[in-house]
Amino acid sequence: MKTQDSPVQKALKLALIFVIQYFIATVAAGIIYMVYVLCTSYVAGDTFSTFNWELFVFGMFLSSFLVTLLNGMFLIFYLIRHPFSPVVSVITYVILSLVAWLVISPASCYMLLRQSSNMMGSRHEVILSPGYFRTVDDAVVYYTAVTPENVGNGVIIAKNESEEQVFPFSQEHLSSSTGTFADSLIQSSIDIPYFFVYALFGIRMMHRTAMECVSQGFFAWLSFASLGAALISLIGLRRVSSWRLVNVNFVLLFTILIISFNMFYYGSNFFDFAVNKFTTFFGDRIPNIFLVVCNLLICLIFSIIGIVVDVTHKEETQWTEE
């Protein structure tokens, strides 16, 4: 006869899953970041580097905040699929989430702050390779030769409605690319979905805000981490319906809404009027007091929902996996 694990054993199992899940997600994100940077810095004709240890480690630290944002949601998914003692499971989940928000994420941001400025996104001067046609604005450029000093010779093919005009040039100093990709030829070969571009913009904005809060001190980070309090409280939705898929969809939906609301706050001036009123009333001792109040209010609402659901469905609580 198979013996059931005790709630304490299941809590330890949940902690182990948290560690494994966090590690795998961070490593995967580090690899994705490394490949992304290697692709954006690649120049046609050069040897492509398949691995860069510095970029990989930097990507792991950089992605830690994103992993913290989403890791709690996947822990809730696990608890929806494998329910056990409500008290033990919630306490374990909250402790693990607090460790992520108050220890792992700020520590990762602090490590990034200590990195040299050239690792934070600066790029060495790119020497474009000759022998390729590249689109620049509304013209096509062909370099016949490029010196190590980034001085090139070639022709420009200008297009208009009726004809194409060819203009040779020589001894022109080639300016470095100001776009995401070092080589426009590589950029035209890789189709990045708009959703990914916008998501990446939002993630960068949130991460930049997180870095600023870490640099301003612990209380500034606590203000920013009110986002974490709102996300942690979504544990209250794990049993709001008898259908597990409905619970998963609720958690996913409100995770997206909460993160989007915080992104919108940091990325727009829409809430300036309310922010000024709150700052006048509460003072400026607490950074982003309006957002803190909103996130804590969200946390309170979902916490109450979770308590009510657990109390009213106490007799239906299943401590063992179905």
Descriptive overview:
By secondary structure, the protein is α+β, with helices and mostly antiparallel strands. It folds into two domains: 7-123 and 193-316, no CATH class; 133-175. Helix content is 60%, strand content 10%. It is built from ten helices and four strands, in the order αααββββααααααα. It has a four-stranded antiparallel sheet, with no helix packed on it. A hairpin with a 4-residue loop joins strand 3 (151-159) and strand 4. Helix 2 packs across helix 8, helix 3 (86-113) crosses helix 5 (194-216) and helix 5 (194-216) runs antiparallel to helix 6. It is elongated and about 80 Å long. The two termini are 16 Å apart. The relative contact order is 0.11.
Features:
322 residues, alpha+beta, four-stranded antiparallel beta sheet, 4 strands, 60% helix, 10% strand
Q: How many strands in all?
A: 4
Q: For the largest beta sheet, what order do the strands appear in spatially? A: 1-2-3-4
Query: Helix segment count?
Result: 10
Residue fraction in strands? 5-15%
Give a brief rundown of this model.
The protein has 322 residues and is of the alpha+beta class.
Write the layout of secondary structure elements.
Blueprint: H1 7-40, H2 53-81, H3 86-113, E1 133-136, E2 139-146, E3 151-159, E4 164-173, H4 184-189, H5 194-216, H6 218-224, H7 226-232, H8 244-267, H9 272-282, H10 289-312
Antiparallel strand pairs: 1-2, 2-3, 3-4
